[in-house]
Write a structure and sequence with these properties.
310 residues; alpha+beta; Elongation Factor Tu (Ef-tu), domain 3; 4-stranded antiparallel β-sheet; two-stranded antiparallel ribbon; 8 strands
């Protein structure tokens, strides 16, 4: 059994007058793997158990980086070999590998396709359909007709912008229409939806909850609290969908003005910048175009977007 644990590398800071810490995550760290096994001459041949142990020990002293595993795959430094010599022909071993990269995790990431803009707009429609239960509660709270109409207008604006996004997403089915202009129109509609959503969030949160509790009684107050909590959740989901749609459209726009390079072993942002731009000064431009986390380098096989000069 292999325990392939991973943890976040984070920093925690407490600022004055704030009991809640601020955390910054700087990547991840893998626990060492401990592997146990048994080598027997009757399986390997005369004296082969000791030969295999000697080979593993030489790999430790040579600082060899190894790739290990079938069910899970890890790449790292073979740090320690601890043999247990039960007899001359049979030896147990315990290996400690300091893991640098989890190959199984990379395979899973490659298998999970990012959501398409069409998928995201479909989810937006679901998020906007018959979910705003706080509108059915507000009459009990004796809010003004003008205020209720304002809320309804905001939801209508969101529905209209979402309908426009769905129409644009349908146009993406036609390969000839997948232009930077269309993706920029999608991004503009996303911006309109985000503005309407922000206004809706501010408006809903402006309803004086404490005042309504005093006027309507506990039962209505509980119903309103539940409805508003659901509204907050729905708005959070919709905000995330809009942000991801904008990100996907931005990537597509970058792709319209870029060429693609398949990263090779040893490629760095500096070396790619030198290759395509004639010097290392374009390394930050490449990192930003590929949304690379600071401190990471291109992975072999990764499709790298190379922005072209306009």
């Amino acid at each position: 059994m292999v325990e392939d644990a991973v943890e976040a590398r984070d920093s925690e800071t407490y600022y004055p007058w704030n009991d809640e810490p601020t955390r910054h995550v700087f990547g991840k760290r893998y626990d060492d793997w401990t592997l146990n096994g048994r080598l027997r001459d009757k399986d390997l041949g005369a004296n082969q158990a000791n030969v295999k142990i000697a080979l593993l020990q030489s790999m430790v002293t040579s600082e060899v980086v190894v790739r290990w595993g079938d069910v899970v795959g890890g790449v790292g430094l073979l740090k320690k070999v601890k043999p247990g010599r039960e007899s001359e022909a049979e030896v147990t071993y315990e290996l400690t590998i300091r893991i640098s990269r989890n190959e199984y995790e990379k395979r899973i990431q490659r298998q999970v396709a990012p959501p398409s803009i069409r998928d995201l707009t479909d989810k937006m429609v679901l998020a906007l359909s018959d979910r705003w239960t706080f509108l059915t509660i507000t009459p009990e709270l004796e809010l003004s007709v003008d205020f209720l109409e304002f809320l309804d207008d905001l939801l209508s604006d969101l529905n209209q912008v979402t309908a426009t996004l769905v129409r644009f997403a349908n146009e993406l089915d036609n390969a000839e229409q997948r232009t930077a202009k269309l993706f920029n129109r999608i991004r503009a509609s996303v911006g309109q939806a985000q503005t309407a959503l922000t206004t809706l969030q501010i408006t809903v949160n402006s309803i004086p909850f404490d005042f309504q509790v005093a006027r309507t009684g506990a039962q209505s107050a509980v119903a309103w609290a539940a409805a508003r909590a659901q509204a907050d959740l729905d708005m959070l989901v919709l905000s995330a969908l809009l942000a991801e749609t904008d990100r996907r459209a931005e990537i597509e726009v970058l792709g319209q003005n870029a060429t693609t390079h398949r990263a090779q072993s040893g490629d760095t942002w500096d070396s790619l910048s030198t290759r395509f731009y004639g010097g290392p000064s374009g390394a930050d431009r490449l990192r930003q175009a590929n949304r690379a986390r600071y401190g990471t380098q291109p992975e072999p096989g990764q499709a790298i977007q190379i922005p072209l000069d306009s």
